[in-house]
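Researcher: Please generate the 3D structure of the following complex. Treat every line as part of one assembly.
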Amino acid sequence: MTSRFRKFLGDSALSFPTWAYMLFFFALPVALVMWYSFGFKPDQFTTHSMEQLSLGRYREVVSPTFLSVFTATLRISIVGTLACLVIAVPFAYWLAVKVPPGRRGLLLALVLVPFWTNFLVRTLGWQIILSPDGFVSEALQGIGLLGSPLDILYSRAAVQIGVIYNYLPLMILPLFVAMDSAGVQLREASADLGAGKWRTFFQVTLPLATPGVVSGCLLVFIPLTGDYITASVLGGANGTMIGQLVANQFQNAQNWALGSAMAVVLMLFTLAVVVVTALLALVVKAIIRYVGRVELPTGQHAGTDAGTAADLPEGSRVRQAEPAVSGTTTGGPHA
Amino acid sequence: MSATLSPAIAGELSIRSLHKEFGGVAAIKDLDLDIRAGEFLCLLGPSGCGKTTLLRMIAGFEEPTAGVIELGSTDLTKMPAHKRPVNTVFQAYALFPHMMVAENVAYGLKQSRTPKKEIGQRVDEALTMVRMREFADRSPGQLSGGQQQRVALARALVNRPKVLLLDEPMSALDRKLREEMQVELKLLQKRLGITFIFVTHDQEEALAMSDRIVVMYDGCIQQIGSAEEVYTRPANSFVAGFIGKQNFVEAVVVSDDGGALRLRSVNNTTILPEPNAAGDPGATGRPVPSVGDTVRVAIRPETLRLRVADGVPSAPNAVRGRIAGVSFLGDVVQYVLLIGEDTEILSRVPRSDAVPLPTDEDVLIEWDGADVAVYCDEG
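Model: Done. Output below.
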């Protein structure tokens, strides 16, 4: 890297590979998609034309079919994200708090084992598990829980199960890191102050793991909403998720304009869900803070003591605290 | 947690045959200790001596392998940490970073479902007591080390524990602040009458604050006593060497005249300890050396007297030496003395208006038999 180049970029030179990559392979394509969404498909052999700009594609998008798939997608991704969270929280807690550090490496590796296999292949694996003549079906019939073969493959339920499986590690990892970084000391301090395991979890461990919860939810929710492999493999051809519809427009129908409009709507809705959830979280946080606040009496001594204490010599400062202590002693019977 | 601040029912701990092993290695070996109600007790020892493990067992963070811990008539041994009427000030303070100072202090009171109004009052009092009232709405991250420590202290004391455990709480503070806090903590403890158990590896800190010091080494108690006792009458050569500066010399017992030993050190100095003096083996029940035994002789640097070499020895214990180095330490002047070719000993004399003796000066080193301690152990 020449010095002139570095002078031009400044300290951001270090981030150059990242932002260059993001600019050329993310920002520009997304901008193109947005641009195409205002175009139209002029004839059977052309994917798009920008000769006449309109919002016509968006009007097409707001069709009943699209909207029903859209709500289904939203439901699958919200339920999927929440399910991942509910499954991952106890696991991450167990891994970060209960498991001796020496064995964590192995368990984390096991969490990541599914990633060693191709996404499509391990989703296909679920076809075998969920098929009517698969071992799950036969086992359930064997113990009498099912009267007829399992009928779940190529349904929304199958997609739901598949996405939870596919995205669970993405929830576990940030949660584990967050819970691990809170450290054993704070949990001990909490126990020392009289909080049992559950109270410590809800008042210390979980609040401190909030950044992990947020990043885990984002890591799961965003790609899950756009997922189309799981939906195609386990949901069948009728299209249970929006990603399938988008892919269909680009690949089969060769209607890039309509596909682009669908993609833009998908992005905007994902963004909206994230923003609304974030706002809700902030409100909840504010409420918790308000409920848990400590109101100190605004007596005169409290205000003046603070101001004058710093100017007094050591001995008198210590003595000045005495009225408060005698107050503490008389407060004893309340305890 | 229904303790009140009345000294009458402050914590009296009794520890019986306490034993703790980590993976087969003993950290605490069959330890017995009685801690009096309302005393300031220091657990002092080098790192790895088991003092922190002992404290953590009292707090309930470690389960003893064997033995009993009782608070008054309550058996704490199997009680989970959150039910024990003891509180801890942690080494790194362990303040909750997601809570304001006031919420940190209120945490324990909330767990015991104290009425909201009382929480406010007690948090106010506790913060005022440690002079952190004006920081109530800050987050711990915005405070200095000393301020965080005060908050940690308030957070523990606000619960009115019977016993307060302090795990090297001052190790992160700079010297001046630490000395201020020592005075303050001692005054606070006197006033509240709560039993304080203070873990430290810093002997000055222990000497400055404690009613009693428990010197620990290798999972065992080496000596229990007041600051003066452990300093002037160490029970063994470990304590003699660990507390304060010490000169150790190896010597052989030449004769024993009814308890009056005559020792000869490796460099042929004759040492005459006072018969049955405080430091004498017989007085403290330590093994008495017999003629021919090799012993360790301990003489404190401040008990040595230096005179210019042309004088006549005025004490039975005297040896000639040379000043190899002089350091001015403020309130004392420290001399490194060379006896013979390779025996180095330290001498400390209070700073006076007299000009310190120069380097390379030949001196006569004198001491009293009463200041000589003799140990048969290996140290």
